[in-house]
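FORM 7B - TANDEM STRUCTURE REPORT

SECTION 1: FIRST PROTEIN
SEQUENCE AND TOKENS:
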Amino acid sequence: MDLENGLKESIQKWSIPIKDISDLDGLAMRASEAKYVLLGEASHGTSEFYTVRAELSKKLISEHGFTFIAVEGDWPACQAVNAYIKDNEDKRSPEEVLKAFHRWPTWMWANKEIASLVGWMKDYNKTVPEDKKAGFYGLDVYSLWESMDEIINYLRKINSSELQAALDAFSCFEPFNRSNETYAISAGYLSDGCRKEVIELLSSIRKNAHKEKIDRENALNLEINALVARNAEQYYRLMVMSDAGSWNTRDMHMAETLNAVMDFHGKNAKAVVWEHNTHVGDARATDMKKAGMVNVGQIVREEHGMEDVFICGFGTHRGTVIAAGQWGAPLREIDAPPAQAFSWEDELFQAGDEDKLLIFSDENRNEFAKEIGHRAIGVVYEPDMEQYGNYVPSSISRRYDAFIFLSQTKALSPLAIDSGI
């Protein structure tokens, strides 16, 4: 039996057809045994990745007691959503609240698919006690300036003794005029940057927050914004010097933030995490390991054990996707061509042009362990060039615990939001 036919036959043997969302009930039940359920995506612009993750998340929250959803988004913008879904008196529409996502690429979270999920979460939270309300949090590191604003505004609001220290710390950043690129070049090549200032501020906030008698949710918000400031400073300082260093800083920050939110919710907390496959699929099962890169999936597995972590990857064979031709450019709907021959997505297609689910176990994991190219589409995408960088060599059954294949997909539905880079 040759390799290609062997993999095709293994897919046909072990895959479960997906014809209705109820066909994922078994996956939700299996995933619910873990404390951390990581749901991936092969692009940031595919509608079905969002809608299927939303349906799985609803099941995990309403039927299996999961506590919150944490996403590859900015903490301050996600906090606007978190506050909205927990406030019964806030009568705004989800679309109005999602205007908080004004930094490019806005479409990742300001879209109709997320608006529908946010509306569901708000309605769900009206039916449960205050301490059982589901949360929505952002794990990413990019919001350096927004997080600094949040810290200053909150400390000023409560007339905190920490305000002047925060103002002094952030005065270091003033010459860079809120430009990530300017700070990155200056701190990376010309100086030590503002590292000392943000480290000391985070330490001070953690040490003195209890003295301010801040309620728990606001204390968490203050601490995470300070954590973002510290780690974003490092991320941008490394950005111009080391791809692996900046990548690792970002993913370690996301894992650290996830841990902080879990600690906040207590020992019975259970998390659903939404991020790109490149972040949730264990980096040790890809060529990222050779480059010295780690990711959230690897870190969470290492810190909490394989039995408490369930990772589900997503992929598609062809369709349309929202992306941009270069960083900061306007979004556009782009045709994603059929997957490259002999890639993981092509093998799934050759095994049958239908949506399907694979769940990996001790019984079948070896059949899907051989390294194979696995497509990844980012916010910047040029289909004509994808053979040169969009396929990540991966051992699929080591990278994930399950995989959802949606054969033909369509583009996400962005909301009209004014975007800044």
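SECTION 2: SECOND PROTEIN
SEQUENCE AND TOKENS:
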Amino acid sequence: MRDVIGWKHAALLALAILATGCSSNSTKELPPAELTSFKEEVVLHKVWSRSIGDGQGETYNMLVPAIDGDTIYAADVTGIVMAMDRSNGDVKWKKELDVPVSGAVGVGYGLVLVGTLRGDVIALDTINGEEKWRARVTSEVLAPPASNGDIVVVQTQDDRLIGLDASTGHQRWVYDSTPAVLTLRGTSAPLATNRLAVAGLSTGKVVALDISNGVPVWEQRIAIPQGRSELERVVDIDGGLLLSGGTLYVASYQGRVAALDLESGRQLWQRDASSYAGIAQGFGNVYVSLSSGTVEGVDERSTTALWTNDSLARRQLSAPEVFSSYVAVGDLEGYLHLLSQVDGRFVGRERIDSDGLRARPLVVGDTIYVYGNSGKLEALTIK
């Protein structure tokens, strides 16, 4: 592991400051905004609830469930991995890895993939949870690995991308990138297609590699570090990359939100923004959880804001997700907020987990799945 990683982790005491959107010159940190009242138009109904061990744990982890077919997979910080029927929450299997999981969950092509603080990648069988292989990489894995069935792509905290054989876990290739001096804790999850491995880096760049050999195909800078201090120059791409058709959506901290052509890396549009959480897309619009706690709806055609809701200031929002005609986003007190896609007004609210909601919600059909920081996983529908 590179020496710089220790420095980076020591510097991440800045995370709380960055997450609340305060500047480096602030003398007093403002509290999260109080929730405002509104006329409830949508009521959420709990379909089922399940506890997944210790959830995110005491450190800043971003463990996100994954859905494959009729099964939802989730992991906790202690190494518990569970497969559940997504319609009723019944447990299909449970595996206790007894290692500190920090990157989870990736699923597809018969594999459930998790990464650990020790720098291991573990592949389990989707059917029964049996361990298929375990591989050591260069540093801790803070995001779910991805696979196209042939190659498993892993992004490590030291900004390396590693290609592993999906059948054996043997290393096929490594892509080296020099990480930024100071970063937020975490990485965006890589994407794997039949041709490309795509990842966002701590330097504010997106890189696409030939997935068969790790050779760069294109590189695009999303954010340019600015400011005098290292804190002001943090431009991490930590929010998940979003692929819709042939368009790749990406957002950086203290940088921009942008749309890129997947095959060429050509920038289709960009807009100044600061997000460590991520974005959602639907109906020709993009929805962004900004680091300040503001949620924006952006028209892709004009790149102008359709609406802005700043009532959740400093509430450390999760990435948004499109749910029916609404935008769903979680906050640090465990509330799931539903906003209208039309004008951004609040239409519904439900408290899920008093420890907070950090992970992006998942939506399949008329059901939204929410994973709380304490380990509570809930499936909800609209009444």
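SECTION 3: OBSERVATIONS ON SECOND PROTEIN
The two ends are 50 Å apart (CA to CA).
Helices lie at 3-11, 15-19.

SECTION 4: SIGNATURE
Preparer initials: ____
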